[in-house]
Design goal:
129 residues, mainly alpha, 2 domains, two-stranded antiparallel sheet, 3 helices, 2 strands, 5% strand, elongated
Amino acid sequence: MTWGVVGGVAAVTRKRWRQFADWWLTFTGMRLSLAFKLAVPVLVTTAVLAGSMGTIVTNQIHDQIQKAYDRQADSVAAGVEAMYLQHPNDVTQMSDYLARLVQSQSDLVSIRIQGLDADGTVIASSNPA
């Protein structure tokens, strides 16, 4: 029996909500100009589309820039690895090579070749300090 009361209340609430929605649409429809009614959906749709397209394009550009940096880092790492394999025990020559590499590439701050031991020993560095 209680369920019937709840169902009846829900039905009355839905009916009142529909009546209010109809009244509100009629009230605003009679008082707003046609130009406003046509312009608002166009402006809202344009704003939403412009925002979403801007976000999509920004993400694509960010991804392309990140991939370019990754490719550059991979090529520099391959060059340093090749130089290290040619001169594994010549710390002076490796440090000079790394310093020249940092000077020639303006976006590099420093390069270090570290050992894989637990201490993280620096084998060669472009910054001797």
